[in-house]
Amino acid sequence: MSISGTVTVKDNRYHPQGDFHRIEPATRIRNADEGWSLLGVTNPREMVYIHSYGGEAPFFEALGRGRLLATRCDNPDCALKGTVYQPFRIHCSECLGRNTVWDMTDLARQSATVHTFMVCERSGAFNVLDTPIKFINIEFDGVPTILMSYLSVGEPEIGMRVVPIFRTTDPTYTILDLSWVPAGTPVAGLPQGFAF
Ligand SMILES: [Zn+2]
Hints:
Layout: E1 6-10, E2 13-17, E3 21-23, E4 27-31, E5 37-42, E6 45-47, H1 57-63, E7 69-72, E8 84-85, E9 100-103, H2 105-111, E10 113-120, E11 133-139, E12 147-150, E13 162-167, E14 178-182, E15 194-195
Antiparallel strand pairs: 1-2, 3-6, 4-5, 7-8, 7-9, 10-11, 11-12, 13-14, 13-15
């Protein structure tokens, strides 16, 4: 049986329901080199981590609806007024004002290219992507920042035109709901659950 904590927020407070942590009996670590004497114990534990997205929540909600949100500084007194930030940046790093949310899905479809890439044959704990993972840094026309994501189809190349795809069927509400494929990839070639 797995633990099943869920959370809702109402009246500006967290309301957790269900199990959030479970402890299981320790197991002994024996040392075969010294007569199987006790060396220590393992401490099996399961826990649910409550991860608030804060001001970035609209970004993750939009992915499941097939939209890529960025932000833009609209402060008329800011030296970087009009600058678009992707990754989604809640506050402007120049004036520290609150940025405006801006839907850049169409811009991404029209201008995304691979800035650089990295292919990982191995990954860390809890990774759920298939290996080798094709990490790509993506640049967009008129956007000074680059976005880290992953290519789902084909082999990455610097300068390659790519288009975003979104996990609109059973979204996970994590960054994994966003991926990329080479421009011109047919719908039939997309991974399960993803759409343009
Ligand atoms: Zn600013």
